[in-house]
Amino acid sequence: MKKQTKIRCSGLVIAICMMAAVQCKKAAGPEADTKSGTGSEENTTNDITTWTPWIAISNTADKTIEIYRYNHTTWDATTREWSFKPTTALGYSSGAVSAMGVGVGDMRLHYVSGFSGKAESAFAIQGGRYLAIGAYIPSGSYVKGQKLWEYTFPTNQNPNNHAIELLPNGNLVVAGFGDGTASSTYGNWVRIYNTADATGASYTQVNIQGPHALLLDTIYHRLWVGAEINIGGVRHQGLFAYIIGGTRTSPTLTEDVSLRAVLPFGHPSSILADANRLMYPHDLTAEYDNDDVLIYGDHTGVYRFNKQTKAFTPTPGASHLYTGSQVRLKSASKMQGGYYVTTHAYNPTVHEYHTNKVDFFDASTGAIAFSRYVPGYTIYRARVWTHVYQ
User: Fold this and answer.
1) Structurally, how many domains does the chain consist of?
2) Within-domain flag for 349
3) CA 188 to chain centre
4) How far apart are CA 110 and CA 171, in angstroms?
5) pTM, whole model, 2 decimals?
6) Cystine design at 176: which of 42, 187, 300, 359 (Cβ 3.0–4.6 Å)?
7) What pLDDT band is residue 346 in, cutting at 50, 70 and 90?
8) Cα(314)–Cα(143) distance, integer angstroms
9) What start and end residues bound the annotated signal peptide (predicted)?
10) Phi and psi for 44 in degrees, rounded to 5?
């Protein structure tokens, strides 16, 4: 199945994947994908170095992206590698920060070809009604963090965005969650924004209920979406796979139904067995040590999703997080050859969705290895910060 799936893709996606494979080998600046670890941390996938020591967090209090090194025991202004907030000095609109609501909800980093002369790589951010792309490795007269593209939704048309993914051609994929119901006035879609259009008016849309997580997979040439569907009157949640076709200015999205993997909504009957229930998809990230696996997280914990068998297998031990009642998990990723990295509201009486720590779990045993803390309950997501796609 894997071999057949790999070749079942459009010309656009093949071009995207080839460009990503070449550009992933680049490295520049302190946040580039340089190998400075030891032992098991230095594995590679497809001859591309994917290991990185950098972790990005979304700081909801300051409405910033902040980058830290995982092995710095203190995370504060003295150890911070980089911080970003949209400002008018960097070209962003004056209302950008206020449109971000409670702060950055999602962020991605990739090499891009769509901003020639401006940036070799870019980061994308989503917060509230606000979407933006900024230069990360700038070109020409551009500086790091400078605006490449932005869009703010009208206050009366808030789609409650919950996830983004930046494509190698510079387009932006956005998941409009809505209010979590099929009748939501706004949202319930996945869009690809043509960022060659500065107005934000040019996009392709597919309708899907409650999309909450996105990931471009350049191994299977699919865009994975965590979302919901009703089957025979029964609520199901899980993963949907889409083929990206067309061109940058006129992209298309078509579901590959053969890769759809959904389960009935609810609590699993067993804590550490293949899932038979799923609740509220929240994050999707790459597994750089296995091309056939994704890291998937929802309110029933952290899973390794096998693309061939379509099984959701809990990560080992405590790294799974689920203990029989739902966990308010917000992000889950894995360092190549290293740790599972998660955030969840472990004390919801203090804050229902945010936390003051990022947890690192041993990939083999699942035991907690260490946590990193920042002041206040200001962290929503934490991501392994790498340019590389799976």
Assistant:
1) 1
2) no
3) 18
4) 11
5) 0.89
6) 187
7) confident
8) 42
9) 1-27
10) -130, 160
Tokens representing residue 123 in the block:
């980061």
CB 160 within 8 A of CB 186: yes
Distance CA 78, CA 69 (A): 12
Q: 119 pLDDT exceeds 70?
A: yes
Q: Which domain holds residue 321?
A: 2-32+56-325
Residue 173 has pLDDT above 90, yes or no: yes
Give per-residue pLDDT as tens, 263-272.
999 999 999 8
Structure tokens at 276: 């038979």
Rg (CA), the chain: 19
Residue 91 structure tokens? 């070209």
Q: How far is Cα 383 from Cα 82, in angstroms, rounded to an integer? A: 14
Using DSSP bridges, classify how beta strands 189-193 and 172-176 pair: parallel, antiparallel or unpaired. antiparallel
H/E element holding 4? helix 2-7
User: Is there a contact between 110 and 387 (Cβ–Cβ < 8 Å)?
Assistant: yes
3-state secondary structure 281-309: CCEEEECCCCCCEEEEEECCEEEEEECCC
pLDDT (tens digit per residue) in 26-36: 333 334 333 23
Residue 39 resides in a domain: no
Q: How far, in Å, CA of 355 to CA of 345, rounded?
A: 5
Q: What percent of the chain has pLDDT over 90?
A: 82
Q: What is the mean pLDDT of the chain?
A: 88
Torsion of CA 124, 19, 259, 52, to 10 degrees: -60
The answer to whether residue 371 is domain-embedded is no
Reading across the β-sheet that carries 329-334, which strands appear in turn?
Answer: 329-334, 340-344, 357-361, 368-373
Residue 364: exposure state from Cβ atoms within 10 A (0-12, 13-18, ≥19):
exposed
Phi, psi of 74 (to 5 degrees): -115, 130
Give residue 40's pLDDT.
Answer: 23
Q: What is the CATH number of the domain that holds 139?
A: 2.120.10
Q: Got the DSSP string for 230-243?
A: EETTEEEEEEEEEE
Encoded tokens for 147? 């605006």
Q: What are phi and psi of 340, to 5 degrees?
A: -75, 140
Which residues are CB-contacts of 370 (< 8 A; sequence separation ≥ 6)? Answer: 73, 360
